[in-house]
UniProtKB/TrEMBL annotation:
<feature type="domain" description="RNA-binding protein Tab2/Atab2 C-terminal">
    <location>
        <begin position="117"/>
        <end position="273"/>
    </location>
</feature>
<keyword id="KW-1133">Transmembrane helix</keyword>
<dbReference type="Pfam" id="PF20429">
    <property type="entry name" value="Tab2-like_C"/>
</dbReference>
<feature type="transmembrane region" description="Helical">
    <location>
        <begin position="165"/>
        <end position="185"/>
    </location>
</feature>
<dbReference type="InterPro" id="IPR046760">
    <property type="entry name" value="Tab2-like_N"/>
</dbReference>
<dbReference type="InterPro" id="IPR046761">
    <property type="entry name" value="Tab2-like_C"/>
</dbReference>
<dbReference type="InterPro" id="IPR009472">
    <property type="entry name" value="Tab2-like"/>
</dbReference>
<feature type="domain" description="RNA-binding protein Tab2-like N-terminal">
    <location>
        <begin position="3"/>
        <end position="105"/>
    </location>
</feature>
<dbReference type="Pfam" id="PF06485">
    <property type="entry name" value="Tab2-like_N"/>
</dbReference>
<protein>
    <recommendedName>
        <fullName>DUF1092 family protein</fullName>
    </recommendedName>
</protein>
<keyword id="KW-0812">Transmembrane</keyword>
<dbReference type="GO" id="GO:0003723">
    <property type="term" value="F:RNA binding"/>
</dbReference>
<keyword id="KW-0472">Membrane</keyword>
């Protein structure tokens, strides 16, 4: 399967007439193939993107099966171009090769001594989960890295997200490393919560210090959701331990949704890892 990672956005560059330049940047997962081209803002449309994707395909021999996009402002235009070319367009934060390429170009973008971050995205403040999806209880938990796949991969779980690149063996984790996570007991809303999370596309789950403190779920491209808030100091200590364990597990953690603590039925399981910029 051929995958391209694509960004299309305005840059802090102008031509002699003062027009803002937009840039299309394409690479494959290993950056063995890259394609970069700029256009005036007046040309920045779906038709232009389609023509450039076709041009890039001529250089890369054929069009990709999937295009991955991390920037919300790019997604709709690239999705429309993908539809015309029969290419699936996927919104994901995990565009590591593309983000590395853009970072390498950051100095070129930074004109007049101004620092420009080509990966910067505007993120909304965290939003509470819908009340009708709130679980009955939740807790922190750990599982040995060596048990994660065996414990969940073969179980009949309605929503199961264990990407290959996040498997402990592919992150180089020893089987004895404790991988931290959060378990939500959803009761009667358990499956509904799991299905909602499936649509939201969880990325990572963080402890946020504050009054109250809380757990914030990073999801989708820029979404943030408040999963829980708490003031109890024992819970705060557990949350701090949770974050420490994430450092020891190279950022790998998990989210598990189940109806109750019987361990008989699971509704959803996600392997998570914060994006590395």
């Amino acid at each position: 399967m051929k995958i391209w990672q694509v960004d299309f956005y305005r840059r802090p560059l102008k031509n002699q007439q003062g027009e803002v330049w937009w840039e299309l940047v394409i690479c494959d997962l290993t950056r063995s193939f890259t394609y970069e081209v700029q256009c005036r803002q007046s040309e920045a449309n779906v038709t232009w993107i389609v023509s450039q994707l076709q041009e890039a395909a001529g250089n890369a021999k054929h069009l990709p099966d999937i295009i991955q996009v991390f920037r919300p402002q790019s997604f709709n235009l690239i999705q429309l171009a993908g539809q015309q070319l029969n290419i699936k367009v996927e919104a994901t934060r995990h565009t590591y090769a593309l983000k590395e390429l853009l970072q390498d170009k950051a100095e070129y973008y930074s004109t007049n001594g101004d620092n420009y971050n080509p990966l910067a995205l505007d993120k909304p403040p965290p939003t509470p989960l819908p009340e009708n999806l709130l679980g009955e209880q939740w807790r922190f938990a750990t599982l040995p890295a060596g048990d994660l796949v065996e414990a969940f991969a073969e179980r009949p779980i309605p929503v199961l997200e264990m990407p290959e690149f996040l498997l402990p063996i592919n992150l180089g984790l020893a089987s004895t490393v404790a991988v931290p996570g959060v378990i939500i007991y959803g009761g009667r809303q358990s499956l509904r919560l799991a299905r909602w999370l499936e649509e939201a596309k969880p990325v990572s789950l963080h402890f946020i210090i504050g009054e109250p403190a809380g757990l914030v779920l990073e999801a989708g491209l820029v979404d943030r959701w408040v999963v829980a808030t708490f003031e109890d100091q024992e819970v705060v200590k557990s949350a701090q331990t949770y974050e420490q364990r994430k450092q020891q597990s190279k950022g790998l953690h998990f989210l598990l949704v189940q109806p109750d603590d019987s361990g008989v039925t699971y509704s959803g399981f996600w392997l998570l890892k914060a994006e590395e910029l």
